[in-house]
Design goal:
InterPro entries: PLD-like_dom. Residues 69-135 form the Phospholipase D-like domain. The chain has 415 residues and is α+β, with helices and mostly antiparallel strands. The chain has helices at residues 8-16, 30-39, 58-66, 106-111, 122-136, 144-159, 164-176, 185-189, 201-221, 267-271, 314-323, 327-338, 360-368, 394-412, and strands at residues 2-3, 18-25, 45-51, 71-75, 84-90, 95-100, 116-119, 140-141, 234-235, 259-264, 291-296, 300-307, 345-347, 351-353, 376-383. The N and C termini lie far apart (74 Å).
Length: 415
Amino acid sequence: MILHNNIKEFLGQELTQAKEVWIASAMISRNGLKFIQEHIPKIAKQHYLIGIDLNTEPEVFVRLYANSDHNARVYKSAYTYHPKVYLILGLDDSLKAIIGSSNTTTWGLEKNVEMNFQISDQAECTKLLDWFNGLYAKGHIITPEFIDSYRASFVRMRSKVKEIDTEAASLKLELAENSGQFFTHNQHRIFKEIYHTVENDDLKELRKEVRARFLELHSRIYPAFVKEGLVNLHAHHQKKEWVSRHFFNRFSGFYINAMWLHYGKSESELAVYNNGDRSINNPSRFINNIRMQVIIHDQDVGLWLMLGRGGASLIDRKHLKNKLADLAFRTVFFDAFKNLGKGYWINAGAPVGEADIVTADQLAQIVMQSREDAYFIIGRNIYYLDNALSDKQIATTVMEAFKKLYVLYELIRHG
């Protein structure tokens, strides 16, 4: 069915009966977004893939970012993003689509000379949904940094029309600069503080992606452990625990601020510590012992040797402190720490860089004064755009770090 100039009335009516919508629009205005929100049921799921080539208003991104229930991404490529697609799943579980020339603006929906076509054929609508999901997977999640950068660019583009291409190219670089990295821009940004307690469909999928990437990294590095001398560094004896949880539950506290791939003691080593405690504090639990891990955050990837907090890793902590009473061991421990080199640090309550620790006694004092309620970590964090974290280099980067940290792992490890 052909829809001429004014699709606002038809779209509004369809939105009132929507269970879920997918909107791919080159440009969305504040009024356009307001129109959608005024007509769509609050419980309906919403998915947006928005362009920035045609000056979408910054306030649109602000509002979508503020509402974590909406799944919204920005699409930017080397070419202009120009679709106008409205796909609606109705209460009767049938799909309808409107495709054509109308952007999600007041002018596009009711005033301009536009041409649109309404599709009810379910096979064709399903193809449109597949098309949307394919592009959506390549989109960028909305972050405060993006909004600030885009707002500044938006103002300059409006006041200096001749500089539009330059400004657009600069913003495109910001979004695409992670090309070739092992973890994508989106896979990092989901660990921003605002998302720590949010679990919408978009974030669930991205956390699954991070888990899958960690399993891929495991397949690249773990087979080399024994050959590289990491003979006492083992994956968790249960495969589902190789990577930290990517979903909310009572154990995670409905809170995910990072995810990690970790290695530690073998099942037989851990069994020795089993005291029958059925709580999370059982000393035979994998996470209650010394571990080495690759951990992803918003802005970096950490390569860490760590002892847990809140009663975790007590056996290893006590073992290390007892050994540090021996002056000869202090020297060995200090030499192994200094061998880590530039960029490494120890954090036993507060971070201290490798270069700032100049004596074995200074290092020993930091360890001896460490509190059980604080994490004990030795490692380094690498900026997420560093070439060391590229898809081609990350396995080498992790193995080089693990070989250095493993010396300390063996010195600290009880067993």
